[in-house]
User: Fold these one by one.
Assistant:
Number 1:
Amino acid sequence: IEHKGWCDSELATNKATRDQKTEAVEQLSAQKEDLTSTIAQLTQDIEDLTKAIAELDAAMADATAERTASKEKNAQTVEDAKAAQVAVQEAMAVLKDFYAKSAQATALAQTKQTPGEDAPETFDKPYTGLLPEGGSVVD
């Protein structure tokens, strides 16, 4: 009987140990499945982010090229504006010189006349019209 008691006790201990180990295996299997799913999701996220980074790099390269072209165009515009500024200054100098000289010129200057002197020539005799003498428009 003592042997049977020992066997029963060992069987109960073994069953408890087996139950604990089975539960641990099930927990670890569930954890492994969760981690495998997480790895798959993170791998997909990495692929998506890598693709997004490549698109951003391409967009940055395009923007840089556009800015470079715009910078060159702006530099040309600034250069043209400086040349135009010099041309305007030269034109202003020519105009100032011209008007300074023309203030002293009298070739096209108008002389002051009285209204009587400025009036056009008039007729020597009164205007009688084109009709025969004493006629009217109705005759």
Note: The chain has two helices and no strands.
Number 2:
Amino acid sequence: RTAVEMAQAIRARAVKSRELVEELVDRIERLDGPVNAVVVRLFDAARQRADEADAAVARGEFWGPFHGVPVTIKESFMLKDAPTTCGIPSLRDYSASNNALNVQRLLDAGVVILGKTNIPIFAADHQSFNELYGRTSNP
């Protein structure tokens, strides 16, 4: 399903955000091992936000056009309290203190962030490898 299709289904109450989150968490846990794409997994926070999104729908409230839609973001994008290293070993213990503008706009549109995906060091190469997270394989 596309993000638009998921958003429409949530808005129509044909599916709950939590159901979509669980479906994608299951898929990541089953298939991502050898691929190594989702390197920062924020599943508990995603479940909590999905539950909040579902409660809002029950009240007739919608946060934005992508209310409750699960997504991932690149590891280099700052997400408050989540690792943001750009694959740089010296930033191994850094967590962002605020959200990047693009991430905040996604959150304001209602998304649920499942995790962060791998990038090359400094986001400066065509393949995703860095010393912190290793290589992402293209399935």
Note: The first helix runs from residue 3 to 11.
Number 3:
Amino acid sequence: SLLDDMAAGHVELNTITCSAAVTACSNGGKWIQALGLLRKMMATRVESNTITYGAAVSACSKAGEWSKALMILAEALANHVELNTVTCSTAISACIKSQACSKAGAWIQVFSILADMSARHVESTTFTYNAAVSACNSGG
């Protein structure tokens, strides 16, 4: 795996280097590898942060894997990782772009994310509120 290659190349495995690797996977459209790196970080006890989880949510969103994006967001919340507007908005975007999520009640997912954002004092943007309206209009 990439983390094994990094360790073999004497690259220190820490939050910064691993988050950069997850981000690179996300930017390259490699969502499965991004999630694999996140799991490997957990297994090797390398701390994940807002950037790590944000990149993993983004990778899933870009791939249309809305349920995985929501799962990663929930995992970040469970691990008490500080969320940011971009990560939450990316998860909302993944949900509203997916017809499967719309059929599964996108508005419920979106409003759950909005509630988490509010409870954690994460700033909502115009995009966030427009996404909520869009989810309601999707018939989900």
Note: The two ends are 39 Å apart (CA to CA).
